[in-house]
Amino acid sequence: MPLTALPILDGMLFINSGVLVARDLAMLLALGILACAGLVALSSLVRIGLGRWLGTARASLWAWTIVLLPLALLVLRQTGRVGLEWLRSVSPWVLTLSPWQKLALLAAFGALGLVWMLRTGWQRSLGHLLAGFEALRPLAWGLCIGALALIAWRPPVWMPLGAKAPSTAQVATPDKPHILVLTIDTVAAQDAAACRSDSATMPNLARFASSATCFTRFQAASNFTTASVSSMETGLLPWQHHANQPDATIVPPLRQHTVAQVLRDHGWRTHFITDNLLGSPRHRGSFEGYDSAPLAPTTLWVNAVRFAATRWPDTALPRLVSASLAFLAPLDERRHQHQSPYRSEAVYDALHATLDAERAHGAPQFVFTLSLPPHAPYLPPPSTRYKLLPPGVLDRLSDLMPDNMAYPSAQQPAVDQHRLRYRESLMAADAALGRTLDRLEREGWLKNAIVIVTSDHGESFEKGYLGHAGVPVHQALANVPFVVKLPGQTEGRVVHQAASQVDIAPTLLDLTGLAPLPRAEGRSLRPILEGRDLPDAPVFTMALERQGRDAPIQSGRVAVVDGPWKLILHLDDGQHQLFRLDRDPLETQDLSAQHPAEVQRLQATIRQRIARVDAQRGLARP
Predict the structure, then answer these.
(1) Is the peptide bond before 506 cis (omega within 30 degrees of 0)?
(2) Which of 58, 103, 246, 586: CA 20 to 30 A from 333?
């Protein structure tokens, strides 16, 4: 198992029972057996071809050398890359290395390995290695038999990639409108400017918002996809559904506590379409609420295997496969030096195909889409590339800094350039959205539909952090676009009241006349959408990646927005920052020393909610 799989294994042990972890590893081993069988077959063919010239023994040695050498080089390259990433995480000076210096560092390690091979004799070393493998044959057979027995004892759930057949004959009516939730990954509200008619980056979204309700202060529940999309589905904050790590899932008792499950139970056909596995119900555990959950194709070779493994959505197999094939990443990276492997159009094409297939049923449709661009890598298509940043800068994948990491202040000019490429990617995503909305309008899907356009989280190019995830919860990550259009709505309005992703599920159920989710922490925004008043309420954003789901909530950061105020509380050590967003939307001035009463009030708000959540879970705080 490669080094890149260790964090996956660590996360599995963090959230699952030992039996389930062993079952998932057994499934990975079963796939590994097939891969090894392929290598053996290939080696046998090469050995047969060489046997007439080299003899049986030497032909076997050379055959394995020819088969394993390219694989070994890829593994060594990935090992060096993982080593550099580790050095970067503990030594900021690595960020200052040029690509040539990094290559020289890797070459030095490669030269040491080559000297070792020459001194020891590669044929003798490989012979000893193959002999060692041969000696492990009984152990290998035992592991294989044990793995198959474990899989048979705890068989995984099977979910086909196609749609389930309709179970009831429902018809869309004004009381049962179509519902489209079009989510664009990684869109910061300040970069999108969706509520402004003069938006330069997302003019199509702004045009749509001009006859809809546009929220300027809509807060993500978390700063990365797994947690935030789970909150959108369940109406629960991450401290309740506990999909707190990228590789985590919604806790089993809450996996059917979703808006999709309720709508499906009441006659809607439900679909989730994405090219981001971390956002898919197949990854997060909420797959039972959907009639279909297809994964839109990408041009990454690794994703072809990774997506195929999602047929077993209650396992960690897709992540384990992805990590185990990480040594193939250089091949994909070489193919995508100048273009992103993800296209918004792939998701929207799947959306149209799904609706076309469902048209004959006449049933109301609930479709949740999540398209990855403008998510990193910031490699916009030719249609928008170079609109903000000229050629010669950040043209290739290898030119980009690693994302989702802190950076020193000296790197801010380079980060500002990354933001321009990001905005170019945002322009392309907006153009694809505009074409999709126009087609949905032409085909009649919007006549009787609730349409939401939003994002799962933002993207940071400031405060010393590039990307998302991790521990930051500042507004660049927390504030995202949120535009809602009701059936027949023609008048636009802009709302400056704070709202949250956990309000989405309660709002949709209220608008369709269905009972609310029993444990939802959000509230219905229907009064605001209909032009009525709704009292302010605290809105939370949290980063709890280091918080275990079986322990009282004590680790991570939680931000609360209440009226004009925002408090960020570090749960680990009690540090905090206070900002007044109506006067300082970019959070440049910490006002905690000047307003201790507000700090105390907002801290109490966070602590009381945490205590309530812990009490619901039966966890006593020390």
Answers:
(1) no
(2) 246
412-442 vs 344-358: helix crossing angle, rounded to 10: 20
Name every residue whose Cβ is closer than 8 Å to that of residue 433 and which is 6 or more positions away in sequence.
182, 184, 202, 204, 205, 344, 348, 453
Q: Which H helix or E strand runs over 214?
A: strand 213-219
Q: How far apart are CA 384 and CA 197, in angstroms?
A: 20
Over the chain, what is the mean pLDDT? 88
Structural tokens at position 131: 């002999």
- Per the CB < 8 A criterion, the answer to whether 410 and 465 are in contact is no
The two beta strands, 178-184 and 449-454, are parallel
- The CATH architecture one would assign to domain 557-616 is 2-Layer Sandwich (3.30)
How many angstroms separate the CA atoms of 114 and 112, rounded?
Answer: 5
Q: Which residues of 68-104 are buried (b: 16+ CB within 10 A; e: fewer)?
A: beeeeebbeebbbbbebeeebeeeeebbeeeeeebee
Residue 151 DSSP one-character state? H
Collapsing DSSP states into helix, strand and coil, what is residue 540?
A: strand
| Each residue's pLDDT tens digit, 33-83 | 888 888 888 888 888 888 777 776 678 777 877 877 777 777 776 666 666
Residue pLDDT, tens place only, 515-539: 999 999 999 999 999 999 999 999 9
For residues 130 and 126, give the distance between their C-alpha atoms in angstroms, rounded to a whole number. 6
β-bridge mates for residue 367, sequence order: 180, 271
Q: Is 362 helix (H, G, I), strand (E, B) or coil?
A: coil
pLDDT, tens digit, for every residue of 71-95? 777 777 666 666 666 666 666 555 5
Spatial separation of the C-alpha atoms in residues 411 and 318, rounded to whole Å: 35
pLDDT at residue number 302: 84
Rounded average pLDDT over 119-141: 73
Sign (positive or negative) of CA dihedral 222, 226, 229, 231: negative
- Contact indicator for 480, 218 with CB cutoff of 8 Å: yes
Element (H, E) at 370: strand 365-371
Q: What is the homologous superfamily of the domain 178-238+251-294+347-536 according to CATH?
A: Alkaline Phosphatase, subunit A (3.40.720.10)
Burial of 155 (0-12, 13-18, 19+ CB in 10 A): exposed
487 or 545, which is more confident?
487
pTM of the model: 0.86
Q: Which part of the chain has CATH 3.40.720.10?
A: 178-238+251-294+347-536
pLDDT, residue 434, reads 98
For residue 162, what pLDDT is reported?
Answer: 67
Start-end ranges of CATH 3.30.1120.10 in the chain?
Answer: 557-616
> For 2-27, what is the mean pLDDT?
72
Alpha carbon distance, N-terminus to C-terminus of the chain: 38
For the stretch 129-138, pLDDT in tens is 767 777 888 8
SS3 string, 343-360, reads: CHHHHHHHHHHHHHHHHH
